[in-house]
Write a structure and sequence with these properties.
- With 356 residues, this protein is mainly beta.
- It contains two helices and 19 strands.
- The protein folds into two domains: 235 residues, no CATH class; 96 residues, no CATH class.
- Helix content is 6%, strand content 38%.
- Strands 12-13-16-15-14-17 form a six-stranded antiparallel β-barrel. Strands 2-1-19-9-8 form a five-stranded antiparallel beta sheet. A three-stranded antiparallel beta sheet has the order 5-10-18, with no helix packed on it.
- The longest helix has 12 residues.
- The radius of gyration is 23 Å and the shape is globular.
- The N terminus is likely disordered.
Length: 356
């Protein structure tokens, strides 16, 4: 028998085959019964689009940057304008297969799964590399504390992978590298058990996303999409007043005091003038979310990645409202095997990021 533990053998075998370098991330799901016994556990590989790069780029550097033109040309350390906290992963958000009445759909939900005519059964749809589904989840589970809270990352730690040190063909020549970051949260037995529409109601969780956003405590009984609570506007929670002229550049109203709330690189949501984050007054747009490609500090003109149009491709002209979107989905996964949550089981989700 090998002297390695099961986890060591798993990492060692992956290292010998080159499997460690074949992807950047992995999701592990652990299901326990009401007595705390593990019923099942499985892992799925997952690509992390920009998570590692963004976290390292925004969390490791010093809070100041060197400006060679500061101090009258002598150079000096100056404070940069990045909001470091928004780029830290804080949440694991879930989506589920349910209809407008709250009934679970399982793999019959075509938003998530399609039937494989060759081998039979259902397979997850493919997610692209862009900001699909308005940059959010396909069908996010609404927040309703305490039964359906916004799930924070509850544990962060590193674990080793075992890789060849010098001679790959010799099993004894192995080194442990602490290069796997693990982010963990747990759905408790009383959480995410459905909408109460049937006696045997349950959630069928099909979607998991790793999210970076601002720090938010209790959200209360809002019955809202998790993304909604990260939309910000004026001090009275209404959208910033702006105007559109049928081109890709929109302009903040002169009355707007928070002129630098929206910055270059942000994503915004265009809504009707005076609308709030909880309202769906999106001016008949197919996708109300836009990327800010240019915005000067102190300026009022905002250049977007495309011209705002309605669902008939007519340019939007006149007074509009703008909300800043702070919901940053760093990675997004549709599970091959949907999870049926009930009051009898507890589900632990671990998101692994592999730094090679």
């Amino acid at each position: 028998m090998s002297n390695y533990s099961l986890s060591e053998q798993y990492g060692h075998n992956r290292a010998k085959s080159g499997y460690v370098k074949s992807y950047q991330g992995e999701i592990e799901v652990i299901i326990k019964d009401k007595h705390g016994r593990v019923i099942s556990s499985y892992r799925e590989p997952n690509l992390v689009k920009i998570f590692a790069k963004e976290i390292l780029a925004h969390r490791l550097p010093y809070s100041k940057v060197w400006d060679p033109n500061a101090a009258t040309g002598a150079g000096d350390w100056v404070t940069h304008s990045l909001d470091l906290e928004e780029f830290a992963a804080k949440y694991i958000v879930f989506g589920a297969t349910f209809d407008t009445n709250g009934y679970p759909l399982d793999v019959a939900d075509t938003r998530y799964y399609m039937q494989d005519n060759v081998v039979g059964g259902y397979v997850p749809i493919s997610l692209g590399v862009g900001a699909e589904y308005d940059g959010g989840l396909i069908n996010a589970v609404p927040i309703s504390e305490p039964q359906r809270p916004l799930k924070r990352i509850e544990r962060i730690y590193f674990e080793p992978s075992y890789q060849p040190a010098g001679t790959p063909l010799l099993e004894a020549d192995v080194r442990a590298l602490n290069n796997i970051l693990v982010l963990e949260t747990t759905l408790l037995k009383e959480e995410y058990n459905g909408f109460g529409v049937t006696a045997n109601d349950y959630m069928t969780i099909s979607e998991v996303a790793l999210v970076g956003a601002a720090e938010i405590g209790s959200v209360g009984q809002c019955e809202c999409d998790p993304r909604t609570i990260f939309l910000t506007g004026d001090t009275n929670s209404t959208s910033l007043m702006a105007s559109a002229t049928g081109v890709a550049t929109i302009s903040l109203d002169p009355s707007v005091a928070l002129v630098d709330l929206i910055r270059e690189g942000d994503q915004i949501k265009i809504v009707a003038e005076g609308s709030t984050a909880t309202q769906e007054a999106i001016l008949n747009q197919l996708n109300p979310y836009y990327l800010v490609v240019h915005k000067a500090v102190g300026g009022r003109d905002i250049v977007l990645d495309r011209v705002p149009v309605d669902n008939e491709n007519n340019p939007i002209v006149g007074d509009i409202g703008i909300l800043r979107d702070g919901f940053k989905v760093f990675s997004h996964r549709i599970l091959k095997s949907p999870l049926k949550k009930s009051q009898d089981i507890e589900i632990t989700v671990r998101w692994r990021i592999i730094f090679n």
